[in-house]
Structure formats: structure tokens, C-alpha cells
Structures
1.
Amino acid sequence: MPGGETAAARLERWQKAGGAAAPIITALLAFLVGGLVVLATGSNPIEVYKGIWNGTGLEWFYRVGSFDVTIPFTDTKVWFPWDTGSRAAENLQQTLLLTATLILLGLAVALAFRCGLFNIGIQGQYLLGAYMAVWVGSSFDGMNSFAHITFAVVAAALAGAAWAGIAGILKATVGAHEVISTIMLNWIAIYLGLYLFGQGGPLQNEDQVFSPTSNTVTEGAKLPVFWGDPLLQGLHVGFFLALVALVAFWVIISRTTLGYQMRAVGFNPDAARYGGISVARNYFLAMAIAGVFAGLAGAVDMLGWRFTIGFSDIQSSTWIFVGIAVALLGRNTALGVGLAALVFAALVNGTAARNIPPEVFDIPEQAGNLSTTIQALVILFIGADILILWLWARAGQKIGVGRSSPL
Amino acid sequence: MSNVAATVEPEGIARETIGRGLAYGGIAAGVVAFWVALPPVMTRSPLVPFLIGLVGVALGGAAIWSGAGRRLGGIAIAVAVLGFLLGWLATRSNVEALDTVFVWSALLAATLRAATPLTFAALGGIISERSGVVNIGLEGMLLMGAFFGFLGADKLGSWWAGVLCGIVAGASLALVHAFVSIHLRADQIVSGTAVNFLALGITGYFFIDVYTDQGTPGDVDYTPEITIPGLSEIGFIGDAIGKMNVLIWVALAFVVLAHFLLFRTSIGLRLRSVGEHPKAADTVGISVYGVRYAAVIISGALAGIGGAYLSNGITHSFNENLSAGRGFIALAAVIIGKWRPYYAFLACLLFGFTEALALRLPGAYGEDQAWTTLFRALPYIVTLVVVAGVVGRSIPPAAVGRPYTKQ
């Protein structure tokens, strides 16, 4: 039909366009409104965003020159177009370090989302993974390094899976809404940690009585650093673990029966049940696998650069919820989560107190709250993607969040 | 349950009634098993709670056997075992400790105090959900109320101005949630999550902006306690409720008012019709959007009062993330309370009691005992267990969580 186009095809084209553009417009809109908040408090938003950008280290990519680079774990030097020792490189290492964590946290939310579950419990699952990693990593001294790391990582993943699995079982058997149960599990995980590593707790570092913290991960259990100075939080191999997790997520969701079943349940649990799929089984498995991802996030942080977990780390662990914004901005796909994790890692790292020039904010910690506000706006605008899509093409598409039991 | 009962013959119904009676007896036995070990009875022999607990287990087993449904009998057995365990724990504690913790009048007063923010938020949740809008943003609205309630009382110099600020702050956040989830038809859970983070970012930002690092001042006009002449002289009742915060009385009045409004007025009927069958309501000329907007904003205002009481009436200070999951506990109370004000208030009392107990128990065992930190997880554990036990029997408004599209 020359010149003609079916309504369905037009809608599909619009949705595709909206699908690619909506997250970008969303993020831009969130930064714009965030800038207005900054303006309202009397600071200059352009200065603030410039400060944030400089802190992300992303400028490293356009500083091209002629440099030498040492191939990791060898002494061989080869030519490289970027300076791997610059300040920007250090900032970029920080950003990528956080990207690895956020990829894993984002996947933990995204996988549950695909099955129609809202996993707001990544905080508790991350913490359980972190507790387990730091305990295994700081015990069993003298073990073979590879075995020790593997042991700690697997134990952390299982701890996260078990914690998320509680919510999964409750959802599958009695229909307890996962939002309430996972939030409660978050708080239980926090107090569990405050007990374990707190004053007089069984896992407290006995040498530091007055600022309670865990024992330090032994040298053998630390993840090898392949870029940057291991003493200055260089980029560790956990980054590759996160990339592998992205691929694993894609394979599970798109290439396995389990993934097909989980998506069917997420799309319409009643229809899935009618089609012979066990909804309960998939709810449980989706939460457990999500817990594996969140537990791994705790493991790579503890074994990669934190090495200890202290009282205040546990108390101020609300940053973990960035994973929700990552999953939503990434539209619960592997590629999307990877890119969104980079965006939010850059935002969080750029707003870290040490990266904000003192003339921008009187109190540098303010930047962190600005970052939280921008994350909230991103989630809000994504929820309201009908607005974005209307701006784009007057065609709406709701993101797929299944509901079943009452809330 | 009811539709199953309707299909069985009369003698089946009689059996079920007997079975239910047995199960409730088992639950009562579990409570008594704990109670006998506390003041004033305070038996010191673990055998007494054991025997009473055993009776409870037997009654629960008999209830299952008689066919009252496995669930209720199972709950009875669980309560009986828990009652025995707690009673046994109490017989192992020293007498003075029990006497300091279980001052029943003081415990009742503390229960009412802790239950009040939950009650305000739960009433808000009921009104919002009865209109068909899920409000998991209650947590953020509590937090907004807590910060701006405190700020208002501090800067404007009177507690009621503070409460007004809390109301406005809670309602403003609710307006965002309302717009995004009603007009933009966003997923209500995603939107609620977004406003929670928004509240975290905004309150955190202004908290640091206004109070820097010094924390909140100590000379604020706190919400006053009212002494009721006559009542305050009557022994136990006087100690418990003779001198109570004005906002606790307001909460009690609101519970009655909300019940009356929902079930005895045409406004309530309209609200419920919009939540049950919006299309029918629309057909008879009720503005679905108008009712939902009003309900969500009122829910934010109520949560705002609860937040203002939390900071300005209980803690007498503000700290980041002060609400600490209370909005979600209130949401659990809404579900457990079957979307009814009186039942939800009872659930809030239960959660308030656990919170009061969690605050007092560590003192009884000595603050230096590390494991007593775990008591602080008690409210969250109890919420998790109760939600798991009750949720399946609780039927939400039919249209809850579904955006309505005007025809």
C-alpha cells in the first residue's frame, strides 16, 4: 500500500521510538527539575552540575593523547590513547566500581519485576550478602586465594537468595505482598547487622571497641585490582562479574523456559496458571535469583574495596535503593540496566562529598541529598512515562508491573 | 471462606463453628501462657506456661482435625508455641527486670504513643485505598510531616502551626502521588516508591540546610500532654491515659470519625463506590478523579499529622529517615484491618505494643548486653509474621491499584 501505513504499525513505530527515547527524556527531565531544586536553594545549578560532571571521571574518554599502559597482572607496557594515571582516571575507576554494584542491584530489581514482583528488599539482601562475604573473607585465613574468594562470593549469593527467598515463599504460599515483607526484612537485616558487628557483638572487630566494625577481609580474599592502585580503591575484577551477571540475566529471561514462565507470570498470573505454569514456584524462584544478584552486589563491595562493614555503613545504607531507579530507567532489560547503572554510578560518584568543590555547596553532604532527589524524580517520571510518551508521540505504554495480592 | 461454607450442608457449618471456637481457644491459651509469667501473676515455674501452651497446641490441633481450616488451627498452634516460648523466657528473667518492663499502665501509655503515628497513617491508607489508589507513599508522607511539623513548630513558635505545616507537607507530597497515579495513570506502586525517595531527598536536604550538623534544637513547642481532671486520679486508668498527648486523643477521635464517614454517610458511600466499581460510580455522576484526588490528599494530610506527632510529640527531635518503615507498618495494619478503621486501629495497637516492648526490653537485661539490639527488630518481625498469617483472608477494594480512564 503505497503511502499507507496501518494504525498498528504506526503505534509500534511510536512505541519503539518512545521506548528508546523515553528513558533519555526522563533522565534529562529529572536533571532539569533537580537543577530547579538547586536554584531554589540559592546555588547555581550549572556550577553544581559541572562539579558533578568533573567528579564522574567520564571526561577521561575525550582526553586523548599518547600514553603507555601496563597490561594488568603483567609487566608488559603497550601504547594506549588515554592516560590511565590521571585524576580523571581515578574518578572513572570509582564510577565503574559503583557501576558494577549498581548493575547487580539493578538486576535484582529487574528480574523480580519481570515476574511481576516489586523487590524493594535489595537493601536487606545486599546487607546479608555483605555480612556473609565479610565474615567468610575475614575468617579462614591462609586458604588458597581463588578458593577463598569463590567461597565468600558463593556464600554471599546464597545468603542474599535465602533472605529474598523468605519473601518469595510468603508470597507464593500465603500471598503476603512482597513490598511489605521485603521492607520488614530490610529492617530486620539492619538490626541483625547492628547486633553482629556492633558493640559486644559476636563478629565485632575486637581491636576497635569504640567504633564498632567488622574484621577486615584478609589479603587472600580480596578481589584482584586490574586498573589503578589497590590501596586507592582501584577497579577490581568484580566489574567483570557484573558484566557476566548482565549476560546471565539476558540468558535466563530471554533464552530459558524458566525466564519464559517468569515473564508469563509477570504479564498475567491468572493466564499463566491456566496455561499450566506454577505461579508460586516462579514467584519463589524469581525472588531467590534476585536475591543472588543482590547478595553478589554485597560480596563485590566487601571483597573489592570496602573490606569491612561498620555500624555507620549499615545505618546509612539507603543508597542501595538506587538499584530500583537503575532497573526502572533501564526498563528491566539487561542492556538498559547496564547503561542506567553507569548513569547512576556517575551521578552518585559525582555527588560524593569529596568531588564537590567547596564553593558550590556550603555543606558538601548536600550533594548526596540532591542525588537522592534526582533518583526519586527519575522513578517518578518513569512511572509517569505516559507523560513522556505523550510528549513524544501521544502514544502510551505502561511499564509492566504485575499485581496480585492486596496492598 | 464464606463461599466454601455456603456450599456445605448445615452440620458442616456447625462443625466449622465449633472448630473456630477451638482455634480461638488455642490462641487465647497461647496468650495466657505468656501472661502468667508476667506481673502481677508472675509464675516462676516454666512448667505452668508449658502446660498452658500444650493446651493451646492441643486446641489448635483439634481445630484442624474438626475441619475449621488448617490456617486458623495453624495460627493457634503457632501462637501457643510462641506464648510458651515467651513465657519460658520470662520465667528465666529476674523479677526486678520483669517488674520494670511490665508496668502495665506505663506499657499501655507507651503503646498508645507508638500506635498514634501508625494510626494516622493507617487511616490515611484506608481512605486512599478505599478510593482505589494504593498509597505506599505513606512512609514518605510521614517523613514529610515529621520534618516540616518539627520545622514549623520551631520557626513559627507553636506546636499547632507545626502540625499545620506537617499537614501541608504531607498533602503536597500526596498531591504529587495523586497527579502521577490518577491523571498520568502511572503504576501506583512505582509512583509511591518515587514519592518515598522524594521525601527522603527533600527532608534530608532541608534538614542539613536548616539545622546544619548541630541537630535539632531542644527548645521547641512540643505537642502538649493533656491531664484530664478526675480521670488522672483513677489508679491504673489514670496512670495509663489520664495524662496523654493531645494528638493521641485526636487520633482516637479520627478513628471513630473515619468509621462513621466511611460507613454511615453518603460521602463514604461515594468513596467506596469509586474504589469498588469506578465505572458504575462514573455512570451515576460521581467524579472518579475528584474523589480519588480528595482521598489521596486527605491520606497525605493524615500521615502528615502522624509524622508531626512522631517528631514533635515522641522523639522531640528530627533525624534523617526518622519514619523508619512506620509507613509500611501502617500499610500492613490497613491490610490486616481489612480496610476498616476499628480493625486497623487494633492492628496499630498491636504494632505499637511491640514497639513499646522493643524499647523497654533492652533496659531490663542491661544496655551492655549486645543481643538486646535484636529486640529492636521485634516490630518488623511481628509485622512480617502477622501479615503472613492474615493477608489471605483480607479482601481489598475491587478496583484498588487500577488507574481509571475516563470514557
2.
Amino acid sequence: MTTIQHHPDDELLLAHAAGSLDRGHSVVVASHVENCAHCRERMHVFEAVGGALLDELPAATMAPDALARTMAAIDASPKPLAMPTQAPHPVLPPGMTWPRSLTGCPATRWRWLGPGMRWSRVTLPDDPAANVFLLRIGAGKNLPMHTHSDSELTQVLHGTFHDGRALFGPGDFDEADGSFHHQPVVQAGGECICLASVRGRVLFNGVVARTLGALVGM
Amino acid sequence: MPPAVRKSSMNTVRQTTAPVSSRVRPRAPWLSIVTLHQGRDAMPTSEELNNLAQAVARKGDRQAFAALFKHFAPRVKSYLIRLGTSEGLAEELAQEAMVSVWRKAPSFDPSLANVSTWIFTIARNLRVDHFRRIGNRTADAEELDGDDMPDTLPQPDELLLTRQREAGVRAAMAQLPDEQAQVLRLSFYEEQPHSQIAKALGLPLGTVKSRVRLAVRHLRRLLDGLEP
């Protein structure tokens, strides 16, 4: 695997560790962390902060029978542990694996979005309103120029693209907000597949692009 | 069931523990851990808490579990209340978190995190899952989350690394300037961290973000030597 160059920033990773990210964003951050040793270590540090903060919290008063009730629950027959089921997902190119963070999240087959562009809607069973999808863009193609009203996270799962600022390869992560317009271009070498989570609406420039945006439901 | 667990309150458990002399008994070190604090309210050390968790994992030791419960259940409840959970629900979820601690104890790996950090992640995930469950009325079975299934076996030096990390984080946090420690704390106790913190403190969002950045940079400086 090539070296990962782009990581979630501290604020995002801290929110992920604190459990305060919405579900859509958290699966994309998790898809990065699961393949990035550097960010796993950062997560461990942030979670250790959470552990240290837990220790320093003043103790709340538990109900007098709290321990007895807890032991009773332990002695009662345990709930079956459900192994997350493998939900359907679109056909992937050879060498690409489905992110572990999406286990149990069904995704549609590849749908046509434009010349050389396909997408797959990912449904998060515990947050059906989350706007999470895969984009599959052919070699040399570019996404319509767009900007974001709030925040979009992207994790590169396969291939490379250049967004006008930097090159993003497999394992790389990107966060975009309304502060700039970008037009990702997929490199000539091969197609590119990204996982994205969008909060707020993506604002495309131009009528054709806006139509595509409406088609994707963004 | 040993006598300790039939008692209905944690205070009672404390009184039934072994005498101080048991501290030297090599076969049951976890008993001494509870005893060590008898009569004073010293916080158990990370090492002691880790030993308790391992006693629960290896032998289903209920007395060790009771000691873990005494330390963590009230703090998990406190954590949930800080995040806006009602008293009754916080009580229920804190108990549920401790049931998870018992059930997941065999997967507790001190080479990944110390027990406080591990229980923090259990409480965090439980809280997040609970509110999703309420929102969607699905998910009837407990799920194995990814955290329970490490993809690689821990390396021998990871245990040392984790101890250094946990100790380093605590030392670094003790040295943080108050204003940085405050935003870090609020990052864990607010649902929408930074914008909400800014509002609560009457600070510009940029100031909060820069304090978080400084706090993290400070932590990282102290932890830099630890990166593999």
C-alpha cells in the first residue's frame, strides 16, 4: 500500500473518539482509521484522554441495588451476540476490499451518474437519513465543480484523484467545507472509488452539474 | 455466588473484603486491591484497575467485578448525565455498561488500552447506540463492534507502549493550562463539541478551535516519543 498522506484533522478525530460525530461522518472516519496505523495511534491517545477524564469525574450516586441488579442481568441469559451480517454491496474492482466500517450497511449496485461516473447509495441501518455514498469515477474524468454548504468527508478506497490542491491516493482522507470550490480529477492511470459523507447540501456550479446533484439527491 | 455479590450496595462489598495481609497473597492479588483502599477513598491506580479487569476476564471473579463497579459505574453515570442524559436513564445505561464490561472482559486487551480507556469506549459506544436505537427502533441484538476484534495480534512491546501512552496522557493533561484542559473536557462532554463550547463559554469559535489545537499539540509533544 502506498503511504497515506492525508489524514483527518485533530478536531475531527477528537470528535470521533468522543463519540460526538454523526453516524455518516463517523463511518467515513472509521474507514480511514481502520487502514491507517498513524491515526489508530492518534485515536488511542484521544480515547486515553476520554479514559483519564472518566477517572477524574465526580462519582454520581448509584441506586442502592445497582450492583445487585447488574449481577442479576449478568446471570440472566445473555442476549445473543449478533455477528454483523454482510449486506449487499456493488461489485468492486479486483484488489479493493469493502471497508469494515460499512459492515452491515447495504449499498446499491453501481448507478449511472454521467459519462464515466457511477455511484452507489450506502444505507446506514441505524441512521437512514445519513447521506453516505460511493463514487466511482473513470480514469481521466472529473467530478463537476462543486462546493459544500456544510461538510463533506471523503475517503479514497481505490485509485487516485487530484483536487487542484493535492494528490489523493488509496487510504487518503479529505475534508471539505464551503470555504473553497473544488473539482476533483481522477488520474489517467485508472478509475477511482471514494466513500463520502455529506452533511448539508453539495452546491454544484452550473445547470448540468446541478441536475446531477439533484439526481444523487445531494 | 460469593457473598460479596449478594450484597445490595457497594459499601457493603467493601466491608466484606479480605484483610490487609492478603495483599501479599500471590494467587489473589485483586482481593488486596479492594482492601488497600479500605477506610480511605484513595483512587485505585490504573495498574490495580487493570488487574481487576483481568481477574474478571480470566476467572469470572465477582469480587473483582464489584470493585470495578464501585469505581466505574458512578463515573459512567456521571459521564452520561454530563452529556444530557436524564438521571434515570443514566442509571440504567451505567448498569448496562457494566454488564458489557463483564461480558466483554475476555476481549479486554491491556496492550491496546488501560481499563479506564476501555470502559470509556464501552460507555461511549453504548450511549451512541442507545440514542440511535431510540431514533430508529431497530437493532434488537447486541452487536459485536469492530473494537472487539483486533485484526492483528498485539506485539510484545505494545503493552509497554500503551502504559507509556496512558501515563503520558495523564501527565500531559495535568500540565495543560486550564483553558486548554477545559475545552478538551468539553469536547468529550458536549454533543456538538466546538460550536456549542464556543456558545457556552461566550468565545469565538476560532478561539475554541485554537485552544483545542494547542491542547492536542501539547499532548502530542509529550507523547511524541511513543509513536511506533
